[in-house]
Write a structure and sequence with these properties.
Helix content is about 75%, strand content about 0%. By secondary structure, it is an all-alpha fold. A two-stranded antiparallel ribbon has the order 1-2.
């Protein structure tokens, strides 16, 4: 759990660190106050936000906000963790039956896995489970693509409004060419507007788009693993074979060791052999080998 928490905080730490280094670059270049201009920022930020509100609904922007918030606060589970969960469930279903998996529906933190387990326990046919989960994966990807499109649009708009701010500053400079004070007040608008447009695009909107895209790919991989695992459990595939099959999704460094541990299964699910009154650890080795 602590490892996942650290992975979740790395992005925030990276942003802060890069922001500090970025700010130091401006500070070393000269008076940092020279790079701040409220009028130029309002032109770029206000124009980009206004154009985005015209192009997308408020609900879509709220969804984008929630996705970004979740991306920074909730770390994605690692594939080997999902493989371990599925192998455990496969062993449990072998020993106690499919209906015993109903106990685990509320324990998993993955909504997709909970949904898959619900379909399995409710007795849906394997073809129906596969179709439902595949459809859910497809529209999950479509929804995420919409959020990526919002950020991509904002990234395209920012430099354009930066140019608009520059033109406004140049117009003011030309109009007040006879007044030195007017020229001095409009030149910063012309220059900082372009700066803000480029910085917002390349430091915020493009990286956030890449962040969502990367997280989406990770979650789609987990969903694919879950679909394969649930299908295998539904067809009562041998847990050892399931383990070997699901490990093909993992990187070579994550494939070391065996995930099926009888002692761990016993402790995790508190499984007992109700027919003989013996605990799993007391079951003869031959019977355990046959069940696995």
């Amino acid at each position: 759990m602590e490892g996942r928490g650290w992975r979740g905080n790395r992005t925030a730490v990276g942003i802060i660190l890069c922001g500090v280094i970025f700010g130091l670059g401006f500070l070393i270049a000269g008076n940092i106050g020279l790079y701040f201009n409220l009028i130029g920022f309002l032109i770029v930020a206000g124009g980009t936000l206004g154009a985005t509100l015209i192009g997308f609904s408020t609900r879509r922007l709220m969804i984008l906000y929630m996705i970004l918030k979740r991306s920074f606060q909730v770390p994605v589970r690692q594939p080997h963790e999902i493989v371990e969960i599925l192998v455990d469930l496969s062993v449990k279903s072998k020993i106690r039956g499919i209906l015993s998996l109903e106990e685990d529906e509320g324990e998993t933190s993955l909504l997709f896995l909970r949904r898959a387990l619900g379909l399995l326990v409710d007795g849906y046919k394997t073809e129906q489970i596969s179709e439902i989960l595949t459809t859910e994966m497809y529209f999950f990807k479509v929804r995420r693509a919409e959020s990526e499109r919002v950020l991509r649009t904002m990234a395209d708009l920012c430099p354009s409004f930066g140019i608009v701010g520059s033109i406004i500053g140049l117009i003011g400079m030309i109009a007040g060419s006879a007044d030195t004070s007017t020229i001095l007040s409009t030149i910063p608008i012309a220059l900082t507007s372009t700066l803000y447009g480029i910085v917002l695009t390349n430091f915020f909107f493009r990286p956030f788009e890449a962040k969502i895209q990367d997280r989406t790919n990770q979650e789609l991989l987990l969903q694919k693993i879950i679909v394969e695992g649930i299908m295998a459990i539904a067809t009562e595939l041998n847990p050892r074979i399931l383990e070997a099959k699901l490990k093909s999704f993992l990187t070579p460094s994550s494939r070391n060791g065996k995930l099926v541990s009888l002692r761990r299964i016993q402790e995790k699910f508190k499984i007992r052999d109700t027919s003989s009154g013996l605990s799993l650890s007391q079951t003869p080795t031959a019977e355990l080998s046959e069940s696995l």
